[in-house]
Amino acid sequence: MSEFVLLEVARVCRCCEVQARYWTQVFGARRLLEGRAAGRRFVRLGLGDTTLVFTELGPDEPDRHHDPELREHLGLRVADLAGTLARLVARGARVALTPAALPAWMAARGGFELAWVAAPLTPARLAAGEYRHAVAFIEAPDGLWVELNAIEEPSDTGWFRAAPPPGGSP
Q1: DSSP letter string over 79-140?
Q2: What are the pLDDT digits (tens) for 34-77?
Q3: What Å distances lie between residue 40 and 49, 61, 111, 115, 146, CA to CA?
């Protein structure tokens, strides 16, 4: 059994609202979060056992699918971020962004700000630390970033499938 669960597929788009309406109407996705990350509008939608994250390009920007400032990526959920990173590095992975470096990286690009969160979470519950999300990125072949996510969420949200125990087979 693998220690990884697919958490998200992240894409750039022209309009987050158009994507959100399409995926909620056509596929029955559920809006989970909206806000700004690295200075850009984003929306996270729940779809089945995974989530879709759309990050908006500016109206006059060319497509930037592999731009290091705006990465499309695959997100995996893990139970133990530090242990998983150590195991992946031992297997030859290159760490592109550590959890410790992420706040400065985001701040240099406009920071992170939530504009809306789905019930049952509230801004007060988030501020109280009921939901925690630690992130690191590794770089796979062809410049693809893989986001590793350690998430602690309240039992009443059920947004993400639980991560299997750490140390599964490669």
Answers
A1: S-HHHHHHHHHHTT-EEEE-TTTHHHHHHTTT-EEEEEE-TT--HHHHHTTSSEEEEEEEE-
A2: 999 888 899 999 988 899 999 988 777 776 555 555 567 888 89
A3: 25, 12, 9, 12, 20
Rg (alpha carbons) of the chain, rounded to whole number: 16
CA dist., res. 148 & res. 156, Å (int): 23
- Which residue has 């410790």 as its token pair? 100
Tell me which residue of 46, 56, 60 sits closest to 13, measured CA to CA.
56
The contacts of residue 133 (CB under 8 Å, 6+ apart) are 149, 150, 151, 152
Q: Which structure tokens are listed for 55?
A: 């990050």
Cβ–Cβ under 8 Å, residues 170 and 155: no
User: Which regions in the chain score pLDDT beneath 50?
Assistant: none
Domains present along the chain, CATH in parentheses: 5-152 (3.10.180.10)
